[in-house]
Amino acid sequence: MSERDxxxxxxxxxxxxxxxxFYAGMTALVLAxxxxxxxFIVPMLGLPLAQSALLVxxxxxxxxxxxxxxxxxxxxxxxxxxxxxxx
Length: 87
Fold this sequence. Notes:
Blueprint: H1 3-11, H2 20-34, H3 49-67, H4 71-81
Helix pairs in contact: 2-3
């Protein structure tokens, strides 16, 4: 194998392993963004104040959990969408 072939192999984007963990993680990420939007609908349900507050709190807690996942998680998410070639 020539040096050029080795450089071409090294420059290719890594393949993404799409097993159950990938889909579970992407589902959790999407739910963490979408569920808090349901907090805008809660006042229209006509629930008592205590139940509405509890439901809104549960829905909005998803956003906080995403931001608390840590730097390693966000680095993995960034690598899914951005490929930095090796030179």
